[in-house]
Design a protein that fits this description.
The structure is a single chain. The protein has a three-stranded antiparallel sheet with strand order 1-3-2. The longest helix is centred in the first third of the chain and has 8 residues. It has about 100 residues and is of the alpha+beta class. It is globular and about 40 Å long. The relative contact order is 0.24. It has one domain. The chain contains three helices and five strands, in the order βαβαβαββ. Helix content is about 20%, strand content about 20%.
């Protein structure tokens, strides 16, 4: 119901959940794409920022929008306790 009636929706941020946990699995079961698994390289760990060992920050997108993502990265920074997840969308790839 998160994006009911919308082909182009996304949800992103600190989910405080590992990939196998219910909060993440709910998005996947609803057909949303985990942009990191589609476009990212490596484990995508975001927490803690100084020595990351867990991926608990995500960008999820509906299938049509997920196809428009062309890159995603987790830059090294200590600006927060989490590392940011930065993605690029190519608007010409939207339906």
């Amino acid at each position: 119901k998160l994006a009911e009636g919308s082909e182009l929706a996304r949800s992103m941020g600190d989910m405080n959940a590992l990939p196998a946990e219910p909060a993440v699995q709910a998005f996947l079961a609803a057909g949303w794409g985990d942009v990191w698994t589609k476009r990212g390289e490596g484990p995508g760990w975001t927490f803690p920022s100084d020595y990351p060992a867990s991926r608990i920050d995500y960008i999820f997108a509906t299938p049509a929008l997920a196809e428009a993502f062309v890159s995603i990265e987790v830059p090294r920074t200590l600006a927060s306790d989490h590392r940011p997840v930065i993605a690029e969308i190519d608007l010409t790839r939207l339906p």
